[in-house]
Amino acid sequence: MVLTATDINAITFPHIDKQVADNIFNDHPALKRLMEKRRRYNGGLNIRLPIMNVKNDKGGAFTGTDARDISNPEFLTDARFEIKEYFKPATITDKQLDENSGAAAVVDFTTQAARNAQMSLDDDFAGDVWGTSDDDPNTQTIDGQLDMLSASTTYGGIAVADFANWIAQIDSTTTVMSIGALMNLYEDTSEGSRTPTVGHTTKRLFAKLVTLLQAQQRFMQASKAEIGFMALEFLGIPIFRSSFVPGSGGGTQDNFFVFNNENFLFMYVSSKFPVKMMPWKDMKPQFPQITTTIEAKLALVCNNRRFQGAMTTLDPNL
Fold first, then answer.
1. Phi and psi (nearest 5°) for 111?
2. How do beta strands 237-241 and 289-302 pair?
């Protein structure tokens, strides 16, 4: 007997629903770190963040009865980021259910189907975190790091022409990874106690960084990195590798090394659910199958672009 969608929901949801919700962001370091301090929104079409965009030019030194200007300066604007929706389907045919009859077999098979959808959606998120929407509210993907990591483009609805400090620290001339180049980018993205909290780079540049730091042996243990990924340590901050960080590999001058200050970089998720697996639905008579979807609503936002930076033209072979 082929089990119905109701039967499958009854025996599988206690096994896999929480697993999908908890683990969707765990396979990539940037996503995992962003989700550790995620912010929740209660509703609305976008996230609006107040940005201090000018200094208060009123006041200053005065003498005796000098006239004093106490008018209200316009010193705030707001950045706006659209909430984006994602989904990934998992489908099981009646034939597959028949071949995996019995509660134990169905739990195992449906768990694997949901896990496949989960990992695929995870890759979608990871790719879009390092992608770009061109600050277009009609684009279906989130505003990615490539939107933020620019010294010229509009971001969050704010044009650089309207706010000169609304730029990331971009080095588009350095082609050789070196400790000196890393230090320069670190200083460019630092101001007082506000310093980068994490670095991300490509696998090939990470391998080169290993050789550069070999003498110091600054490898972080998984327990110290806290999220289960091997990392290097540079000036006390972890450096992670990812296949999603932009770069074509050796022989091309388009590989990125990124410093983020996560005190100004946030992932907003729905207060109802960051990731939700919907109940299995019987698709008959149109299709002899059952289907579920894993869905999420989220936005990646930055409220201080100048503390984010990147070298964008590195070649691991140089």
1. -65, -40
2. unpaired
Token output for 157: 């609805």
Residue 116 above 60 pLDDT?
A: yes
Q: How many domains does the chain have?
A: 1
Tokens 């588009």 correspond to 172
* Domain around 180: 5-51+80-163+170-304
In this predicted model, which residue has the larger pLDDT, 274 or 117?
A: 117
C-alpha to C-alpha distance for 308 and 189, rounded to whole angstroms: 6
In a domain, 260, yes or no: yes
Assigned domain for 116 exists: yes
Q: Does residue 295 belong to any structural domain of this protein?
A: yes
Tell me what pLDDT residue 224 has: 42
Q: Is the dihedral of CA 159, 160, 163, 166 positive or negative?
A: positive
pTM, two decimals, is 0.82
